[in-house]
Amino acid sequence: MVSSPAPNGPPRLGLLVAKNCGTAVQRNRIKRRLRAAAENVELQPGIDYVIIATDKVAHAPHDQLKDWLSRALEESSRA
After folding, report:
1. Rounded Cα–Cα distance for residues 78 and 53 (Å)
2. What Å distances lie between residue 49 and 24, 28, 41, 66, CA to CA?
3. What's the rounded Cα separation, in Å, for the pair 68 and 37?
4. Which residue has the higher pLDDT, 24 or 1?
5. Exposed/middle/buried for residue 46 (C-beta within 10 Å: 0-12, 13-18, 19+)
6. CA 29, CA 26: separation in Å to the nearest integer?
7. pLDDT at 75
8. Which has the closest alpha carbon to 63: 36, 27, 43, 31?
9. Tens digits of per-residue pLDDT, 16-49?
10. Does domain 12-74 fall into CATH 3.30.230.10?
């Protein structure tokens, strides 16, 4: 059973990192980096976010990750 988030509840973040992004250690590093970048980006309350990562995330600077996430969120809010 999947529950929907409360309209004013905290945002939820789902991360998908495929096996072609590297070993388990590398994939977990990508997830940690994305979570850290998401903390610095404004996420709307009550919204579920799903991020599908590529192997570029592993080597991108933190500021670039924040920019990527910000732009993706702006584009998705326009749609």
Report:
1. 21
2. 22, 18, 12, 15
3. 9
4. 24
5. middle
6. 5
7. 87
8. 36
9. 999 999 999 999 999 999 999 999 898 888 889 9
10. yes
Distance, CA of 19 to CA of 69 (rounded, Å): 21
Q: Are 58 and 23 in contact (CB under 8 A)?
A: no
For the entire predicted model, the pTM comes to 0.82
- Residues 6 or more apart whose Cβ sits within 8 Å of residue 42: 73
Phi, psi values for residue 14, rounded to 5°: -115, 135
The DSSP secondary structure of 22-72, one letter per residue, reads -SHHHHHHHHHHHHHHHHTS-PPTT-EEEEEE-GGGGTS-HHHHHHHHHHH
Domain residue spans of the chain: 12-74
> Which residue type sits at 35?
R
